[in-house]
Structure formats: structure tokens, C-alpha cells
């Protein structure tokens, strides 16, 4: 057994980084050439370090930096106790999240102080669990109740994309702006990683073009579960029409429209299963959505639901109400993927492959980046998250951050590099 004081937090290091991102298109615009992330290291009295990764945009980074010094002396074996520290330090300033409502770039639902607090807590919780697991010599999934599977399935996350960012050379993926390009991209994902499910990010082109892309995918991959996610871009009428047209083709349609009422109506009228990472993104949004049968699959995300334990709470709630659960992602590196994989390994009834953006990233801050085999990541039984920090890579990516003025994800602004008059589209767009 470790010494009683071994798990005490000696220091918390918060490092903002910029990671390269290809020109992936979505409702709002396009991903920038680089996007911010925050890496957290929690060092204990025993000398071990636990890792966490989350959003790097200014409001998150500011809040994380504010809370970090207050964690010294706390114990990594009691991460739940840090929740009150986060609540106290971030107080009641509702303006901490710079912009209310659905953020131009985030595409992940409401923004309020409670969600910011949940996100800040989450990164520290993951780092504590990693540190605690290392101290005890057990994997994080064991601290969460134990894994029920030894591999976690992820889906191919397809995007319409340009062949390159303006002024840059072509990337390893090529362009995908029509059904043929989308099928070609899906083949690359299947060949390189063996994915067995496919999600297409929609809301980029007229819905009929996106329906055509889904039909082309169905023809090319007759047995694979397919999903389409326009991030709430459509009107109720369009959403209903697409749902009817793609019934039996999609395993689920993700956020066709904005709002619980409109989602409930589409499901009621068409029977199409609907998934969300936009209209149910916090526990306070669950009662109305579930009582109106507005969502059939909640896409959990420990980064904003409040950590790994909260993800298990969400899964239990979904199980109780007969609602499916899977996982949303944003652009991320290996620390996040490790955390996603550990918690997904513990959720008993995970019936859909989880989302991940990780194949789009060419760099990492872990010494041995994860591999996808047969579309899955093997669940590590090594202590903690089962990863090691690549300190040189972290320093390089931090230097990129200090040398750049990119501080926030801004898909709308990035689109102006090609369409100078571009503004955030008004919803519903179609
Ligand atoms: O499922 C989703 O809505 C997402 O993954 C949101 C992301 O912001 C996605 O749209 C992206 O990366 O552009
Ligand atoms: Mg989504």
C-alpha cells in the first residue's frame, strides 16, 4: 500500500498546446490549421504524475488555470472532493463562458457556467484517476468498476473536406466534396483502421446531396451501420423529410434539428432513432428530453458531462429509461482517447461504436499513440490510463501555441480564408 500522504497533490501543471487539424467542414465553416487543447499534469507527493486533456479555448484555459493552484494538498484518491473546489473557485460568474447559447465553433449544445464547471472538473478528475491508478498499480477502468470488454469499438468519422488548407500542401486524406469523395474517404478509414461503422458529418451541403452521399456509402458498405449528423442545421420539415428518406438506411440520425420539441416530433412521426450531443449535454436537460422521447441515443462525452464517474451516471440513467448511450468526440489526442476508452470499457450496455476524431491527428503527446485494429482500441490493463507523456512533444506543441496568436477554435473565421464574406449560418439553414 502507498504511504497515506503519497496521493497528495504537490503540483498541477497546465499546458496549452496547438495541434494541427485538417480542413474538415461542418455547419459553421471549417476547422482551422491548428486548434487549441489543454494538457493537465497532476504531480503527487510520491512523485507520480496523472494526465488529463481537454479543450484549450480561452474560457476553458482561464478557468482551469484559475482552479489549478487550489488543488495543492488535495488527495488524488478522492477526486469527487475536487468538485466543490471547482464550484467555489469559479463562483457564480455566469459570464465566465464568453458567449451564451450554442457557440459558433463548439457545436455541442448549451453553454453555461454549470457546463464550464463540469468541464473543468472533468480534466482534473481524469488526471487524479490516472495518478491514483499509477500509485495503486491498477488501471483506471478498475477504479471505475472494472472493464466489461477488452476492446472499444470506434466509428469512422467522415467529414466533407478540402484537399488542403489554403496555401498548404495536400494532406494524407485528399478532398471529399461529393458522394464519390465521401466513399473514397470511407475506404481509407476502413483500410487503415478497420472501422466497422461510419458517421458522416453533415450540415455542409444541401440535404439532398448529403442523402446521396449516405446512399453511396450504403451501396459501397452494405453491412455497415451508418449515421449522419448535420448539427441541428435543418428545419423541422427538412429533418422529417430526411428522416423518412433514410429510415432503414441509418442506424440513427444525429441532431437533425435544434431543440427537444422538434427532435421529439421527428421521432414520433418517422420512428427514426435520433441521437444527440446538442440538445442533451447536461443532467438538467435529461428529464424533459427523456419524458418527451426526444432522443433514443445520448452521445456522452466525459469532457463536458463532468468526468468519467459522471459518464457512468449518465449511462445508468439511460439504461433506466431505455435510452441508448454512445460517445461524442471533438478534435483530441491520446490522453483523451485513453480516458474515453477506459470509461467506455466499463459501460455495460454500449451498443454503438463511439465517435473519435483521433485518426485526423498526425501528432500526439503520448509516447506510444493508440492504434485502431478492426476499428477498435484495446483496453489497457497497465496502471492508470496506460499512457506516458511525451514531454518533448508537449514542449513542441506548447511552443507552437506561444508562437501563434490562435487561442480559440473558430470554424467561422477559418472559412473566411476562402469565402471572405462568410458568417455563422442562421439556423435552420435548410
Ligand atoms: O458530433 C458532433 O456534433 C461533433 O463531433 C461536433 C464537432 O464540433 C464536429 O462538428 C467537428 O469537429 O467539426
Ligand atoms: Mg453530433
From TrEMBL:
Top enzyme category: lyase
Cofactor(s) it depends on: Mg(2+)
Gene3D superfamilies: Enolase-like C-terminal domain (3.20.20.120), Enolase-like, N-terminal domain (3.30.390.10)
Pathway the protein takes part in: Carbohydrate acid metabolism; D-glucarate degradation; 2,5-dioxopentanoate from D-glucarate: step 1/2
Catalytic activity: D-glucarate = 5-dehydro-4-deoxy-D-glucarate + H2O
Keywords: Lyase, Magnesium, Metal-binding
Enzyme Commission number(s) of this protein: 4.2.1.40
Domain Mandelate racemase/muconate lactonizing enzyme C-terminal: 179-273
Classification via InterPro entries: DgoD-like, Enolase-like_C_sf, Enolase-like_N, Enolase_C-like, GlucD-like, Mandelate_racemase_C
Family per record: Belongs to the mandelate racemase/muconate lactonizing enzyme family. GlucD subfamily.
Protein name, per record: glucarate dehydratase
